[in-house]
Design a protein that fits this description.
This protein is of the alpha/beta class. The protein is built from 8 helices and 14 strands.
Length: 259
């Protein structure tokens, strides 16, 4: 089966493409780095020729990066229009848990628009909403640090390994369209300050994690529902402590390549 991964050179796209190729699928990793721009119809149309599935992982969820994405209604609309022409049978998209709870966040608003376009497109789809990746933890530390203290919301947090997200996307891409949204989260739900405390300890970082109910998380004041998944999400298998053993220090997460 031919599968086109939009955002195929980013953190999730790269892992997803590797998994799909191991399953013997023909994979086109579409991104500006590979010479395929999802805003340009001719380039995208050529990539979609003969494809059955498209997986859109552009602007994957890392709240560690404060960027304003290209408008999702433009890029998403172009991708969907080209899919109809190409006869794509399944659109899989990666989104973010809780985006409807942050109406003032332009990234979340853009993701909501993207989801709505998918749902009304009449193309069979599966949307996977993920909690934040483990890889975002260093960005959280940096954004919340004042001197030798890291002021953090004690709101509940359930981040997930990017490998587990890539596994879920690969399964969805090879499967039957669900025509609904599902969520994926990590196996542990703890206060944000506790996750960061574990990270600082593993990294031998002398800074102290200080719980503060008014601390901002990339501009937002949180409660226990702000970032948490709903009932019965998919649960990743990787525990944070296990991930830390092989990923600390991983300060490259401040410059994650999401495309």
């Amino acid at each position: 089966m031919k599968i086109v991964v939009i955002g195929g050179s980013g953190i999730i796209g790269t892992k997803l493409a590797t998994r799909l190729r191991k399953q013997q699928h023909e994979v086109v990793a579409a991104s500006p780095n590979s010479g395929i721009n999802n805003l340009i119809g001719d380039e995208l149309a050529r990539a979609l020729q003969g494809a059955q599935v498209i997986v859109d992982v552009l602007q994957a969820p890392s709240f560690g990066i404060k960027t304003v994405p290209e408008p999702s209604d433009t890029s998403g609309g172009n991708v969907l229009a080209e899919q109809k022409t190409a006869g794509i049978a399944h659109h899989v998209a990666l989104s973010v848990v809780g985006i409807e709870r942050h109406p003032d966040n332009s990234y979340c608003s853009g993701k909501l628009v993207q989801e709505q376009l998918i749902k009304v497109s009449n193309i069979p789809y599966t949307i996977i909403r993920s909690t934040q990746f483990f890889e975002s933890v260093w960005s959280i530390v940096e954004s919340c640090s004042v001197g030798d203290c890291v002021h953090l919301s004690p709101a509940l947090f359930q981040p997930v390994s990017s490998d587990d997200v890539a596994d879920a996307l690969a399964e969805a891409a090879a499967g039957t369209p669900l025509n609904r949204t599902i969520e994926i989260a990590g196996p542990e739900r703890l206060p944000i300050d506790e996750f960061v405390r574990q990270y600082l300890h593993a990294a031998k970082d002398p800074r102290k994690a200080i719980p503060d109910v008014h601390a901002r998380f990339f501009g937002a004041e949180l409660d226990d529902l702000s970032l948490a998944p709903g009932d019965n999400p998919m649960i990743g298998t990787t525990r944070f402590a296990d991930w830390l053993r092989t990923h600390v220090p991983d300060r490259t997460s401040t410059r994650l390549n999401l495309r």
